[in-house]
Design a protein that fits this description.
Elements (H helix, E strand, L loop, with lengths): L1 H9 L3 H17 L5 H25 L4 H8 L1 H21 L4 H20 L7 H16 L1 H6 L5 H25 L8 H18 L2 H18 L6 H25 L1
């Protein structure tokens, strides 16, 4: 069980799963018909970004087990990247994809590349670093929502913000678990975010904000028991705290 949990992170599969589940929740909530090819492209793109980021960090400074793992199996991950790029090209050639996807994708890709280059220089500013990472992750994950179908209004903006906050707290708490000297968000702020999310969720009748609030709650519970959880497993479990509410939300919206 322990090996199976952290292997999701070692193989850079946790973030792509989180991204696809939340895109699924958004598309289900908005009644959008997004093709499986888009989900596959999203999964591959997120996996490639995480693999490349971890390989580059492994060469600079080995600090965590996932960097060691990526460096140990460097050849395998490089082959995986080549296969992933080939798959993306095949998907783009075989399936008709709206021009809006390309335009919106570039709007996210360029800042992401800049962020990856500047990321080491932002290590002493964890709040800003993780805020930027969460915004880019959410923007990339929800490209079909804001970039293609353009269905984002006031409620949609709050829903995107709620997911950004959940992703931000996820990254901060992982950072604190791996580096105890890192800055941590005070408990009062976490509880305030949860309360505000629940109020907004019931006010707007938004399943998406409910899922984000539940994710915040799960992350808080996980952090309370952090010292009883292996560091390698903690990162993956923190990502699972984002997966579960999104998956349940999709199921409930589908059944209701």
């Amino acid at each position: 069980m322990r090996v199976a949990v952290h292997r999701l992170t070692d193989l850079s599969l946790d973030a792509p799963i989180v991204g696809c589940l939340w895109l699924g929740l958004f598309s289900t909530a908005y009644g959008l018909n997004i093709s499986y090819s888009i989900y596959l492209l999203l999964f591959i793109c997120i996996a490639c970004v995480y693999i490349w980021d971890r390989l580059s960090q492994s060469r600079d400074e080995i600090r965590e087990a996932r960097h060691v793992f990526h460096l140990k199996y460097l050849r395998g991950f490089m082959i995986a990247l080549l296969i992933a790029v080939a798959l993306m090209i095949i998907i783009l050639l075989l399936f008709p994809i709206s021009r809006s996807y390309y335009e919106s994708g570039l709007l996210v890709l360029i800042p992401t590349l800049v962020y990856m280059l500047l990321s080491p220089k932002l290590n002493h500013l964890p709040l800003l670093k993780h805020a930027l990472a969460s915004i880019l992750f959410v923007a990339g994950t929800t490209i079909p929502i804001w970039g293609v179908y353009q269905v984002i209004d006031f409620q949609g903006t709050l829903e995107l913000l709620s997911l950004c906050i959940a992703a931000w707290l996820n990254m901060l708490q992982i950072d604190v678990r791996e580096h105890p000297e890192a800055f941590n968000v005070p408990n009062v702020i976490v509880y305030l975010l949860i309360i505000l999310s629940l109020v907004a969720a019931f006010w707007l009748s938004s399943w998406i904000i409910v899922a984000a609030a539940v994710s915040l709650g799960l992350l808080k519970v996980l952090y309370v028991y952090a010292h009883h959880i292996d560091v390698r497993n903690y990162r993956t479990l923190a990502d699972i705290a984002l997966m579960i509410p999104a998956g349940i939300g999709i199921l409930l919206l589908t059944l209701l």
